[in-house]
């Protein structure tokens, strides 16, 4: 009961978006720094930031599905692909405006996710993972075959994003668009978690029998999780396409799907912080390893396998020493700061 | 024993309930009636089919026979819809959500009274948002915690509560459903004498003040005698006796099967 003293409020606080002052100011500060700072960074760093932000958005969807609802999926990247290709098709072939296409791509992906979710309703554990593996394989095969949608087995170029005549030829501007979607996605994720949907998904994950007897419809809740989680995947995939200006089939392969699952496990299952911290980890660590490799070793053929090896080792170490993910390490640190900086306020709350 | 309270809940009528798992006859033609507002105890040795019977009423199993709650035939209603009829339950083994806070656990109990859909939950704020009903539920959950004298732990993960408090939390969670019929599976198991006494008081109070009908499985005969208006005795899936607790303990078959006398 040690935690109780730190977390104690005398009364429930009416379900705020973020629990503490520290989180509220922190989030606002981070967004502000990103908005301003990104405009002064070089293209390479903007590109890294954009990738992290898009992966955060995608990871929120997977975290909702696998972290909160407990439906483990290794097909998330394939669903990102669905979103990327449909958005490209809506914009280039159908001539729809970008913003509409992005949202429609999310809805289409949600429906596709729902369809793949239907047979999975009776499965759980390893069998569910195998079913999502099948989804990954089927969708990837589809990308390679359906040339009316994907144009070539390798993918299709989409050019530069533009909204109402404004061209995002500066990648720092495109980052702002991505950031806006990701912040909105984060707010919706937090809203879902503090509402009855969050409670019912976690109830069904932890104690399905109790959840059912408390009036929760297991099938319906799982389908909602499939639809919502994959909406995020579709939206993120579509944004990823215009980030690279090319929707590459390869970017949505099984390896990437597994990487997404690793992302939320390392970041922290079932939380927004987990999705964001995991995305930072999954993008930056390979990048650092590349840089370090280039400095230390001249032979490029050694670096690539070594990079994968070290990355794998880091993942294993994480599972051993911080199985609850970076979000938990983060929370411990924040508690320390929180108690220092906002000491007075906490005291007021208590009295 | 307390007086049965006057009520508007419907009666529960169980007739000819049978259920077998493989070769084992878990329930064999069990019939009895639970009058509104009473406390009904189900007793019997281990494996007598008590929990199976409760599971049939709450909906995990589909037995042969009839379970009528008022005018509704329960066996035709899916498990997750029965709580809307006012049927809630607790479990023999602790079944709280250990990682969720005490308050969130309570809110799960009132879940079936939430009406808002997915879009409104995405939005949360504003006219189309779900904030008002969520806040109302949170408020209600906190008030009930206050009544249960557990409000100081509202923000604690339920897994950190003591065993006795977790059992009490389960009772609170079931009460959040605002039930007319409450099914309790060994609510006193593993509790200290002091906790048993306190919880007995609570159960009698709920029954008296809120006029909730209670069907309760209990091993402790002193609890059964002090709390229940009627008692049904099961043995090997059959009803071997029923009546007031005082009548039942005098019954020869009951003494033989349950109280271990020859």
Number of domains of chain B: 2
Placed side by side, the strands forming the largest sheet of chain A appear as 1-4
- Average the pLDDT over all residues of chain B and give the rounded result: 92
- What is the end-to-end distance of chain B? 28 Å
How many strands in all of chain A? 4
Percent of residues in beta strands of chain B: 15-25%
List unreliable stretches of 5+ residues of chain B.
none
Helix-strand blueprint:
The complex is a heterodimer of chains A (351) and B (262).
Chain A: H1 2-7, H2 21-37, H3 43-68, H4 76-93, H5 98-117, H6 125-145, H7 147-150, E1 155-157, E2 162-163, E3 166-167, H8 171-194, H9 196-206, H10 208-213, H11 218-244, E4 246-248, H12 254-267, H13 272-296, H14 300-321, H15 326-341, H16 343-350
Antiparallel strand pairs in A: 1-4, 2-3
Helix pairs in contact in A: 3-8, 3-11, 3-12, 3-13, 4-5, 4-6, 4-11, 5-11, 8-11, 9-11, 12-13, 13-14, 13-15
Chain B: E1 12-21, E2 24-34, E3 39-43, H1 50-58, E4 64-69, E5 72-73, E6 87-89, H2 102-109, H3 118-123, H4 131-147, H5 163-176, E7 181-185, H6 193-209, E8 213-217, H7 221-227, E9 230-235, E10 238-243, H8 245-250, H9 252-257
Parallel strand pairs in B: 3-8, 3-9, 6-7, 7-8
Antiparallel strand pairs in B: 1-2, 1-4, 4-5, 9-10
Provide a compact summary of the structure.
Helices cover 75% and strands 3% of the residues of chain A. Chain A contains 16 helices and four strands.
Tell me what you see in this structure:
The complex is a heterodimer of chains A (351) and B (262). With 351 residues, chain A is mainly alpha-helical. Chain A has a domain at 20-253. Chain A has 16 helices and four strands. In chain A, the strands form two sheets. Chain A has a two-stranded antiparallel sheet. A two-stranded antiparallel ribbon of chain A has the order 2-3. In chain A, strand 2 and strand 3 (166-167) form a beta hairpin. In chain A, helix 3 (43-68) crosses helix 12. The radius of gyration of chain A is 21 Å and the shape is globular. Mean pLDDT of chain A is 90; it is low at 1-6 and 344-351. By secondary structure, chain B is α/β, with parallel strands linked by helices. Chain B folds into two domains: 1-94 and 179-262, Rossmann fold (3-Layer(aba) Sandwich); 97-160, no CATH class. Helix content of chain B is 34%, strand content 23%. Chain B has nine helices and ten strands. Chain B has helices at 50-58, 102-109, 118-123, 131-147, 163-176, 193-209, 221-227, 245-250, 252-257; strands spanning 12-21, 24-34, 39-43, 64-69, 72-73, 87-89, 181-185, 213-217, 230-235, 238-243. Chain B has a six-stranded mixed sheet with strand order 6-7-8-3-9-10, with helices on both faces. Chain B has a four-stranded antiparallel sheet with strand order 2-1-4-5, with helices on one face. Chain B is globular and about 65 Å long. Chain A binds chain B through residues 1, 3-4, 7-9, 11-12, 14-15, 17, 188, 191-192, 194-197, 199-200, 202-203, 206-207, 209-218, 224, 228, and chain B through 58-60, 79-84, 88-89, 91, 95, 97-100, 103-104, 107-109, 111-112, 114, 116, 118, 121-124, 130-131, 134-135, 138-139, 141-142, 153-157, 160, 173, 177.
């Amino acid at each position: 009961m040690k935690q109780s003293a730190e977390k104690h409020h005398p009364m429930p606080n009416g379900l705020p978006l973020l629990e503490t002052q520290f989180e509220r100011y922190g989030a606002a500060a981070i967004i502000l720094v990103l908005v301003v700072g990104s405009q002064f960074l070089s293209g390479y760093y903007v590109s890294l930031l954009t990738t992290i932000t898009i992966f955060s958005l995608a990871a929120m969807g997977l975290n909702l599905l696998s972290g909160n609802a407990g439906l483990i999926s290794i097909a998330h990247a394939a669903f990102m692909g669905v979103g990327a290709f449909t958005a490209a098709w809506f914009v280039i072939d159908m001539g729809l405006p970008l913003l509409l296409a992005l949202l429609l791509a999310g809805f289409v992906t949600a429906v596709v996710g729902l369809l793949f979710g239907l047979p999975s309703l009776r499965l759980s554990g390893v069998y569910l993972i195998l079913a999502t593996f099948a989804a990954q394989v089927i969708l990837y095969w589809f990308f390679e075959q359906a040339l009316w949608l994907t144009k070539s087995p390798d993918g299709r170029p989409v050019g530069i994003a533009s909204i109402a005549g404004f061209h995002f030829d500066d990648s720092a501007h495109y980052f702002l668009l991505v950031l806006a979607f990701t912040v909105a996605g984060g707010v919706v994720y937090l809203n879902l978690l503090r509402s009855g949907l969050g409670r019912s998904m976690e109830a069904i994950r932890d104690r399905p029998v109790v959840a059912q007897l408390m009036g929760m419809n297991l099938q319906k809740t799982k389908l909602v999780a499939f639809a919502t989680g994959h909406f995020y995947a579709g939206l993120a995939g579509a944004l990823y396409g215009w980030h690279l200006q090319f929707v590459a089939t390869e970017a949505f392969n099984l390896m990437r799907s597994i990487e997404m699952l690793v992302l939320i496990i390392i970041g922290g299952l079932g939380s927004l912080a987990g999705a964001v911290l995991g995305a930072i980890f999954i993008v930056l660590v390979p990048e650092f390893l590349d840089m370090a490799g280039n400095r230390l070793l001249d032979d490029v053929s050694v670096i690539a396998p070594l990079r994968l090896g070290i990355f794998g080792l880091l993942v294993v170490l994480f599972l051993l020493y911080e199985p609850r993910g970076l979000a938990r390490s983060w929370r411990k640190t924040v508690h320390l700061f929180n108690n220092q900086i906002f000491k007075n306020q906490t005291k007021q709350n208590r009295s | 024993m307390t007086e049965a309270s006057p009520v508007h809940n419907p009666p529960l009528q169980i007739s000819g309930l049978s259920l077998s798992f493989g070769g084992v006859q878990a329930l064999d033609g069990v019939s009895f009636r639970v009058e509104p507002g009473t406390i009904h105890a189900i007793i019997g040795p281990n494996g007598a089919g008590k929990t199976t019977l409760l599971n049939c009423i709450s909906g995990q199993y589909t037995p042969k026979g009839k379970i009528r709650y008022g005018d509704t035939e329960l066996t035709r209603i899916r498990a997750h819809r029965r709580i809307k009829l006012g049927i809630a339950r607790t479990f023999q083994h602790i079944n709280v959500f250990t990682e969720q806070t005490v308050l969130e656990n309570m809110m799960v109990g009132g879940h079936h009274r939430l009406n808002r859909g997915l879009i409104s939950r995405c939005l949360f704020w504003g006219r189309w948002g779900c904030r008002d009903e969520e806040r109302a539920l949170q408020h209600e959950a906190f008030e009930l915690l206050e009544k249960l004298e557990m409000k100081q732990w509202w923000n604690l993960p339920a897994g950190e509560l003591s065993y006795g408090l977790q059992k009490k939390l389960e009772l609170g969670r079931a009460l959040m459903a605002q039930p007319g019929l409450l099914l309790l599976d060994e609510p006193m198991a593993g509790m200290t004498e002091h906790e048993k006494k306190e919880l007995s008081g609570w159960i009698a109070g709920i029954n008296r003040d809120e006029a909730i009908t209670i069907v309760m499985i209990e091993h402790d005969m002193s609890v059964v005698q002090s709390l229940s208006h009627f008692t049904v005795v099961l043995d090997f899936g059959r009803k071997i006796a029923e009546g007031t607790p005082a009548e039942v303990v005098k019954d020869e078959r009951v003494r033989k099967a349950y109280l271990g006398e020859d």
